[in-house]
Specification:
about 0% strand, mainly alpha, elongated, 6 helices, about 100 residues
């Protein structure tokens, strides 16, 4: 198990730079990558409800278009915005983690 926030001395710039190169291999070879976005708050459960709903649709883009003005979808879109404002997304290597992960 690799937890970069614990396995890397975040205060040591040289160590962080060195570990960043290793992280590519770690994430590429990982069987599964799981991220912790924090506790449920700001209706974040609505985000995952929406993602599950979209996964069940034959045409997710069309479904979103047809439901865009619904109050429930507006709440979910606001929850998405708040989820993406969390500190997790401010980490520089988050894209690398996601892009390198097989699952």
């Amino acid at each position: 198990m690799w937890i970069d926030a614990l396995c890397i001395n975040q205060q040591d710039v040289k160590e962080r730079e060195h570990q960043a190169d290793l992280m590519k291999r770690i994430y590429r070879q990982a069987q599964q990558v799981t991220v912790w976005l924090g506790e449920q708050s700001d209706n974040s459960d609505l985000v995952f409800d929406l993602l599950h709903m979209l996964a069940e649709q034959d045409d997710p883009a069309n479904w979103l278009f047809n439901h865009f003005m619904s109050c429930q979808l507006q709440d979910q879109l606001l929850a998405i915005a708040k989820l993406y404002m969390r500190p997790y997304w401010k980490r520089l290597w988050i894209v690398q983690e996601i892009a390198m992960a097989a699952q």
